[in-house]
Amino acid sequence: MLPSFRKILRSTKGQSLIEIMLIAPLMMALTFGAIEVGSVISTYLTMSHTTREGANLASRGTPPVQALAAIVAAAAPTLSTGNQAQWRIIYSRIIPDPLNQPAAEPYNFIVDTAFDGQLSAATGTLSKASKLGTPGTPVTQAILPGIQNVKLQKFHVIEVFFDYAPSIITYVGKGINTDLYERTIFTDVNGS
């Protein structure tokens, strides 16, 4: 009887099953984490592309309402009518301050107060305000570094805010900043 007991203790039949059971949760966590990180990167790249294309369209003379509609359509499914509470796009036009233009640098700029100077209608319902400020607000060097040395130029700015919600419930979704923000500024090439 003693030799058969030793034989059972030295048996390796089931060792693989135990190893799989110990490693499987770790492998699943790594897989879901990789999927979640890939989703965050994809969302951020979509936002970056959206801001560049929107500012490019606006700088070339496309009316801001049409430019915003075009970039929202191109950014689907990340930005869509089904998830409008997660995102917001704001278009702003930066112009030289007509009341305070010195002859020397730094030049003063403001957010345009015209109808299309700042627009976010029908572009998401996330409650975020432009980081540039409201129309009529001076644009400081801290907000948009580099524009103060450009004389009498207009700029088009697209800002995209996105409240990222993890698609898979994982530990990774809790460890990342879910408030994504991207902004692109283009010089007015159309002369409008």
Number of strands: 6
Radius of gyration: 26 Å
Oligomer: single chain
Counted by DSSP, the helix tally is 4
Q: If you had to describe this structure to a student in words, what would you say it looks like?
A:
With 192 residues, the protein is an alpha+beta fold. The protein has one domain. It contains four helices and six strands. Helix 2 runs antiparallel to helix 3. The longest helix has 45 residues. It is elongated, with a radius of gyration of 26 Å. The protein starts with a helix and ends in a 5-residue tail after the last strand. The mean pLDDT is 82.
Pick out its properties.
192 residues
Short recap of the structure:
The protein is an alpha+beta fold and 192 residues long. The chain has helices at residues 2-9, 15-59, 64-74, 171-174; strands spanning 87-96, 109-111, 118-119, 138-139, 155-163, 179-187. Strands 1, 2, 3, 4, 5 and 6 form a 6-stranded antiparallel beta sheet that branches.
